[in-house]
Design goal:
By secondary structure, this protein is of the alpha+beta class. It has a single domain, classed as Secreted effector protein ssei fold (Roll), CATH 3.10.670. Helix content is about 35%, strand content about 20%. It has 4 helices and 5 strands; from the N terminus they run αααβββββα. It has a 5-stranded antiparallel beta sheet, with helices on one face. Strand 1 and strand 2 form a beta hairpin. Helix 1 crosses helix 4. About 25% of the residues are buried.
Length: about 160
């Protein structure tokens, strides 16, 4: 299996494992709210999973969308791997109006139209090295990641 095909399988399997955990009643705010407001945490855990599976060049990207109205501001996070955008929470925008409407649960590709809507700040883009025990939310992420991995083993 080529690296690209493997990347697609890993990414789709990760999203499927999260959905299975939710269907099985896993508790915690992450699973209860997914995908809404969970793009950063999900990207962190997905980055760790990709690292665990041999991927090294992973970039974490966070941007802000500024609409025409003062309260029309949204942030979003995704990964870039091998120059491809990897986003498994874009469907949190499925109820938004154009141009922010997005109902794609898993996106892997080069098309940047949706992602170009977000202004990337200087600190919003960096190489990802996996989950870090120095993070304030590390233990919560590690616990969620272990639950997700349990379901990945069943796929």
């Amino acid at each position: 299996m080529g690296k690209q095909m493997n990347l697609q399988k890993l990414v789709y399997d990760f999203r499927d494992a999260i959905e299975t955990a939710i269907e099985n009643g896993e508790s915690g705010t992450f699973f209860r709210k997914f995908p809404t407001g969970q793009c950063g945490q999900t990207s962190d855990m997905l980055a760790q999973y990709l690292i665990d599976n041999g991927f090294e060049s992973i970039v974490y990207v966070n941007g802000t969308y500024y609409g025409d109205e003062w309260n029309d501001r949204w942030s979003h996070t995704w990964l870039v791997v091998n120059d491809q955008i990897i986003d498994i929470t874009g469907d949190q925008f499925k109820y938004h109006q154009e141009p922010l409407k997005n109902n794609v649960p898993v996106y892997i590709g080069l098309e940047k139209k949706f992602y170009d809507l977000f202004e990337i700040h200087q600190s919003g883009k960096h190489k990802h090295f996996g989950l870090d025990c120095r993070w304030s939310n590390y233990y919560e992420l590690e616990q969620c990641y272990e639950i997700i991995k349990k379901y990945l083993n069943d796929i």
